[in-house]
Amino acid sequence: MEVSNIIQTGNSLKLNISVSNNSGYLPTVRTTKEFKINAAAVFQVKLIVTKGEKHNTYYNWIYVRFVKLHKEDDLTYTIKVNSKELNITDKNFISDDGTWHLVQDNIKQQNYSFIVTAHIDITPSACPLALLHDDTELTDFELKGEDGSISIHRAVLAAASPVLKAMLSGKWQESTDAKIEKLDTSKAALQNFKDYLYLGTLPYADLELEQLLVLASYYMIKDLEQKCIFKLVGMITAENTCDLLEIAGQLKVRRLQLAILECVEEGVIKVDDIRIHSLDCESGEESL
């Protein structure tokens, strides 16, 4: 079993696998190496081959598995597997314990090849606070940004963040005034922050995710921080790699730094592409 044309983009991994069965070495078990996806999990393919009673009849069982790299992150990952050649369409697995999942057991060929694509994501969890998201009568706190403010429930803030809990339960000015002013962020970022606390949703744009990561890091909301990192690494390009590294350094988010470096090491992002983009930016600044 040979693996070629390995393509890693964001949260997806694409492998071209060729199988050549030699009757002199059957039955056999073959396993690919571990391939990292988004610095969050590793993915593998396993092949078990036996020879049938009839001449040149082979039975092939194909399995996949993925293992979460960071056991302490308390997130549940799903993986979606596709392969046109194996007639697999959006086969989902909600597991990260390393279990081998059978995806094909009806291949009776000696030599064949197939392309398999694995896409990893975070399983959204139902949030009981969703009914309070649009409530305006019971809100008792305010977050004020650079261009506006949002209303929110004090108890929700305290439940989400140990920093905010200490602030709101003590004799701080913010607790007395029932608001936090002069937040160095936009009203849109604060709305995204509220949306996550009540609905568990995240924005799609990388700039919005970066602003949300700042709030998550400052207020020590670990689950939000991890989810922002996961999505940002999934959107990494040669154009934004240096900016993300700078943000990770400023916030001292080591996991984001390591995830970006792993993307470079695994070849998801090429150093030459980053260099070319940086030179182009420098040339553009000089021309101004």
From TrEMBL:
UniProt xrefs under InterPro entries: AtSIBP1-like, BTB/POZ_dom, SKP1/BTB/POZ_sf
Pfam families named among the record's database cross-references: BTB
Species whose genome carries this gene: Chilo suppressalis (Asiatic rice borer moth)
Protein name from the UniProt record: BTB domain-containing protein
SMART domains given in the database record: BTB
Residues covered by the BTB domain: 139-206
